[in-house]
Amino acid sequence: MSSFSRFAAIAVATLLSIATSRAQDAIPSVPRELLEDIATGSRVLADLGVVDAFGHVSARHPTNPKHFLMARSVAPAQVTAADIMEFDENGEPVDARNRAVFLERFIHAEIYKARPDVNAVVHTHSPGVVPFSVSRTPLRPLYHNAAFLGEGAPVWDIGKEFGATDMLVRNNAIGKSLAAALADKSVVLMRGHGDVIVGPAVQAAVFRAYYTDVNARLQAQAIGLGSDVTYLSAEEAAKADGVNMVIMDRAWALWKQKVQPGK
Ligand SMILES: [Zn+2]
């Protein structure tokens, strides 16, 4: 190897090592595990067909609760821990470094502001859910895994407050309206768009996002059978939701294994 090529090789290796360490230290105050959970949740929802090229998963910042963490603008199946960025309470990036950010980040900003109990937010355009966002048939829990729907899943119509838009939550005012419609629930449907799901942790929000989609598909099938459908009662839903919160670790372990890089 000539001295020039040796120099070039060392220079490239140094630059790569700087780039890698910068990516790993993207948000030094946040445990690596939480960044991994956000990335894993994104890839899991893509693997389960709940999101495709669009949709996002976020978590509240663990030590600065006004801020939240979310990937740069990238398809959910491609998110890694190095893609996670920090955003302030208005949804603006703290350290953008020329990275593109999601247009609908205001969904997350306004929900974290309105709901101190929420530590994770998921937004999807879930194909199972969209029909319920444009119909007068309410989404209701058909089976135990979707018991959290027992508290209700309101439909938010962007047109009621904002007229004819491109349907996107592209500013704080629209995000605030959506957060108000969510109120104290776990799920809000967005008319002609998708849904938003919240939880006390990333795992819970991902679990609920998946079973909201599955329940919607099953409910449409059950309604299609033509006779009256029996839903979970409020008491059954409350009891089953308590169990789900305990057993969701098993689902998370399975889903996580399936989306590990290299699988
Ligand atoms: Zn959207």
Describe the structure.
The structure is a single chain. The protein folds into two domains: 1-30; 31-258, 3-Layer(aba) Sandwich (L-fuculose-1-phosphate Aldolase). Helix 2 (32-47) runs parallel beside helix 7 and helix 3 (105-114) packs across helix 6 (172-182). It starts with a helix and ends in a 5-residue tail after the last helix. It has a seven-stranded mixed β-sheet, sandwiched between helices. With 263 residues, the protein is of the alpha+beta class. It is globular. Mean pLDDT is 91; it is low at 10-24. The protein contains eight helices and seven strands. It is 44% helix and 11% strand. Bound molecules: zinc ion. The site of zinc ion has 6 residues, from loops.
How much beta, percentage-wise? 5-15%
Mean pLDDT: 91
Oligomer kind: single chain
Strand order of the largest sheet: 3-2-1-4-7-6-5
Which CATH architecture of the largest domain? 3-Layer(aba) Sandwich
Query: Which structural class should the secondary elements be placed in?
Result: alpha+beta
CATH topology of the largest domain: L-fuculose-1-phosphate Aldolase
Helical residue percent?
40-55%
Domains, number: 2
Largest sheet, in brief, is: 7 strands, mixed
What is this structure, in a nutshell?
The chain is an alpha+beta fold and 263 residues long. It is 44% helix and 11% strand. The protein folds into two domains: 1-30; 31-258, 3-Layer(aba) Sandwich (L-fuculose-1-phosphate Aldolase), CATH 3.40.225.10.
Strand and helix map with partners:
Elements: H1 3-24, H2 32-47, E1 56-60, E2 68-71, E3 84-87, H3 105-114, E4 120-124, H4 130-133, E5 155-156, H5 158-162, H6 172-182, E6 187-190, E7 194-199, H7 202-224, H8 234-258
Parallel strand pairs: 5-6
Antiparallel strand pairs: 1-2, 1-4, 2-3, 4-7, 6-7
Helix pairs in contact: 2-7, 3-6
